[in-house]
Design a protein that fits this description.
It is a single chain. The protein is α+β, with helices and mostly antiparallel strands. Strands 13-12-9-10-11-14-19-17 form an 8-stranded antiparallel beta sheet, sandwiched between helices. Strands 3-2-1-4-5 form a 5-stranded parallel beta sheet. The chain is globular, with a radius of gyration of 21 Å. The chain binds adenosine-5'-diphosphate. Adenosine-5'-diphosphate (ADP) binds next to strand 6, strand 8, strand 12 and strand 13.
């Protein structure tokens, strides 16, 4: 097992990783920008190193500074959290060259899955069902017309390097192809330095359902069921739940089995998420995330398994000590992403947190790094906390969520807490009847 881990992240996820390390008896090193001197992850870590000025390009994405911090402190491994360097294959390779363990998959697996065209091809080869679409990259507008015509409208033009919903354009008919194709290419070039795009059938009312996997790189893999992340705004998840209200146990076992078998065959190491759109009883692969996800706690709540500790164990070279039969799914969990944003306009609301009171009681978990007197810097993501609630049934979970939201007080900045309170008054939410377009439509209409 590792003795000392550097956490190359900030905010709630840095704290999440720190907690897992501490329970395993592993020493922790925090890194931080000059804007984060007073951050909770810095206060709680055993040691900390300042790695640069506020902009993330000069601090949390500064690979030489992070490698130096490992060398200065003697950290043998790096946990990247999510975002920042978590899916940067070059970072994984550089750590490897320096004899530092990257707590995550190999650079090669990150690279394959980071290129969506390559990821889709790999998924198909491994027997995972995919969204119908172009055979690889679409290099010209003329080819885009042909593919869309053959497949039928509407279609989605997607960036191979895409992420966070960027470089994704809808074309409802042939008239819209030129614009959609050119914009997707330009946007992708600007955001990712790569203009390769491909085309997919646009699904009208799917749910976003993702399967959590855990593998040891030694040929063993298990699945930890699914999360339903259909409630999205601008392709960004807002509320996630496990299990999905749309699946039954047989469907779960079937798709979970397909994914676990594929991941074992790939020789993958670490945690990963295979994302699908789900419509009319069919699953369609869209991408794989080769890291821990923001919404991982809902899976932990229904399985009792600490995903970060498992990540650290397999990164240490230990074989998986769980078989599929050891894993059972009990109850229901929901996560609400609390952002420092105006709950109506979603404009960021950084600033000083004057007071915080977090909810508690049975089945309530808060993953957050804010405290009274803390100033939320304007440079980073607006996620300031995650409220995760567990119940024996979905209904109990919803009642508890309503109760917990009512207790949650954050003063000084605006937060998205009121949005979740409004959502809990909606019959579609209470009944679990929503698809990936539901929230956008609700926000337009209300
Ligand atoms: P990103 O990596 O940018 O997040 P994804 O491929 O994961 O892109 O897709 C993000 C979201 O975009 C999905 O959760 C879904 O809401 C929507 N989406 C992606 N592909 C399709 C599709 N073929 N049809 C309809 N919606 C889609």
């Amino acid at each position: 097992m590792l003795d000392k881990v550097l956490i190359a992240n900030r905010g709630e996820i840095a704290l999440r990783v720190l907690r897992a390390c501490r329970e395993l008896g592993i020493a922790t090193v925090a890194v931080h920008s000059t804007a984060d001197e007073n951050a909770m992850h810095v206060r709680l870590a055993d040691e900390s190193v300042c790695i640069g000025p506020p902009p993330s390009a000069h601090s949390y994405l500064n690979i030489p500074a992070i490698v130096s911090a490992c060398e200065i402190t003697g950290a043998e491994a790096v946990h990247p959290g999510y975002g920042f360097l978590a899916e940067n294959a070059r970072f994984a390779d550089i750590l490897d060259e320096h004899g530092i363990t990257f707590i995550g998959p190999s650079g090669e697996h990150i690279r394959t899955m980071g290129d969506k065209i390559e990821a889709k091809r790999t998924a198909m080869e491994l027997g995972i069902p995919v969204v119908p679409g172009s055979d690889g990259a679409v290099d010209t507008v003329a080819e885009a017309h042909k593919v869309a015509e053959d497949m039928g409208y509407p279609v989605l033009i997607k960036a191979s390097a895409g992420g966070g919903g960027r470089g994704m354009k809808l074309a409802a008919s042939a008239d819209e192809i030129d614009d959609a194709y050119n914009t997707a290419r330009t946007e992708s070039q600007a955001a990712f330095g790569d203009d390769a795009v491909y085309i997919e059938k646009y699904l009208g009312q799917p749910r976003h359902i993702e399967v959590q996997v855990l593998a040891d790189g030694q040929g063993h893999a298990v699945h930890l069921a699914e999360r339903d992340c259909s409630l999205q705004r601008r392709h960004q998840k807002v509320w996630e739940e496990a299990l999905s209200p749309a699946l039954n146990a047989d469907q779960r076992a079937e798709i979970g089995g397909i994914v676990a078998t594929a991941i074992a065959k790939l020789g993958y190491r670490g945690v990963g998420t295979v994302e699908f759109l789900y419509e009319n009883g069919e699953f369609y692969f869209i991408e794989m995330n080769t890291r821990l996800q923001v919404e991982h706690p809902v899976t932990e709540m229904i399985t009792g398994i600490d995903l970060v500790q498992e990540q650290i164990r397999v990164a240490s070279g230990l074989p998986l000590n769980l078989t599929q039969d050891d894993i059972s799914f009990a109850g229901h969990a929901i996560e609400c992403r609390i952002n420092a944003e105006d709950p109506e306009t979603f404009t960021p609301s950084p600033g000083r947190v004057e007071a915080v009171h977090v909810p508690g009681g049975l089945g309530v978990r808060i993953d957050s790094a804010i405290y009274a007197g803390y100033s939320i810097p304007p440079y980073y993501d607006s996620l300031i906390g995650k409220l995760i609630v567990f119940g024996k049934t979905r209904n109990e979970c919803l009642m508890r969520l309503r109760r917990a939201l009512g207790e949650y007080v954050i003063e000084g900045v605006s937060t998205t807490i009121p949005l979740f309170q409004r959502l809990l008054a909606e019959p579609a939410i209470m009944d679990g009847r929503y698809d990936i377009h539901w929230l956008e439509k609700y926000l337009e209409d209300n």
